[in-house]
Design goal:
disordered C terminus; 4 helices; single chain; alpha+beta; 4 strands
Length: about 90
């Protein structure tokens, strides 16, 4: 199922582990190409959630989108990141 018109909601502390797992799975294919884990894989998502820097979208209870706001404390670029488990087709 694709999540078309949704509004991300602030992540809660209980979401931090799922957020980390989704981001790690999104970046895992790139580790062999760049020879190390990129910064989003090593970010402190517990702190990012506490700081209000993470918003999420769920589909049928499953975390499918993570939106992070950048910040020096989280090793993100200043423009933030969007991580998808599922991507909607653009028609």
């Amino acid at each position: 199922m694709c999540v078309p018109d949704v509004t991300p909601v602030p992540a809660e502390p209980a979401d931090a582990t799922a957020v980390r797992e989704l981001v790690r799975s999104a970046y895992a294919p790139y580790v062999p190409q760049i020879g190390q884990e990129p910064a989003p894989m090593t970010a402190d998502y517990v702190q990012a959630v506490e700081d209000g820097d993470v918003h999420i979208v769920r589909d049928a209870g499953e975390l499918v989108v993570v939106v992070t706001r950048g910040g020096d404390d989280h090793a993100q670029d200043p423009f933030g990141r969007v991580h998808f488990r599922k991507v909607c087709a653009v028609v």
